[in-house]
Amino acid sequence: MKRRSCLFCPSTAKLTGEHLWSEWIGDLLGDRTYVFTRRTHPDDRRDPWTVESLSQTAKLVCGTCNNGWMSNLESKHAKPAMQSMILANSPVTLSPFQVVSITAFAFKSTVIAWHMKQTPSRSPFSLTIRRRFAQSLAIPDGFQVWLSALDRPGGRVHGVWQGHTFKTPVGTPNGFENYVFTFGVGNLLIQSTTSRWAKHFFRKFSVPLLTQHADANSFAIPIWPNDGRNIVWPPSRHLSNEAMGAASSAE
To answer: I need a labelling partner for 120 at 20 to 30 A (CA). Which of 29, 33, 55, 151 fits?
Structure first.
């Protein structure tokens, strides 16, 4: 049987587990009891289960990638940029470098989430895109990122890890498909989208981009694509855990 290769490089060595919630996030939150609820569809909710650590992993990457550039992405980019927002909702001004760091973390997580459930041959993230990202953290065209803030009633820590694919109705002129990934923990919520035209003919041209409705401006901050500007977080309104359909909580 052909051995599956790493998502980000040609290696077919034994695949290692990439943490869905990074190890440093578990260390940051400390000892807690985590209650998970799996959702595979926006209307689906299964019985919760309890664990003592954020140890969930997906075996999709090789040890070289996991312990090399992915470890650097977590320690030199994601953790410095995100940890204060996870712990508190105090105002934070993100530099352009920090925006790129969060976007790179979001892209890595989005690729992992898609390939956990979907058919590899239909991936919106080609091998070329994934391997270029591994080499230089280059973000592909069509990838968009927003930041929001989560309420923490009673001091509880909630987390979200979920992805869904949406398509315009059949027959829609210039139809497209969109993969939405949502990652949240503590006070921070990150949502990314990856869009592509439904018709292969159009994919050789520009990629479809979503435009945020004015009603969302109070609770969602677009950070990517970014023209080098600073980003101020959090938005004026916070999202409730129930509104996001949280995937986990911790006490």
So the answer is: 55
pLDDT band of residue 128 (cuts 50, 70, 90) is: very high
* Angle at alpha carbon of residue 250, lines to 247 and 251, rounded to 5°: 150
| Residue that the structure tokens 């490089």 belong to | 9
**121 phi, psi to nearest 5 deg:** -65, -20
Distance of CA 73 to the CA centre of its chain: 14
What sign for the dihedral angle of Cα 150, 152, 158, 164? negative
The per-residue pLDDT for range 51-77, each reduced to its tens digit, is 666 777 788 999 999 999 999 999 999
Backbone angles phi, psi at 45, to 5 degrees: -145, 130
Name the pTM for this structure.
0.87
Helix 96-117, helix 79-87: angle, nearest 10? 90
Determine contact, residues 33/250, Cβ cutoff 8 Å.
Answer: yes
Give me 76's structure tokens.
């030199």
Chain CA centroid to CA 158, Å: 15
> In sequence order, what are the beta bridge partners of 39?
none
> pLDDT tens-digit profile of 144-162?
999 999 887 666 677 778 8
As a whole number, mean pLDDT of residues 127-154 equals 91
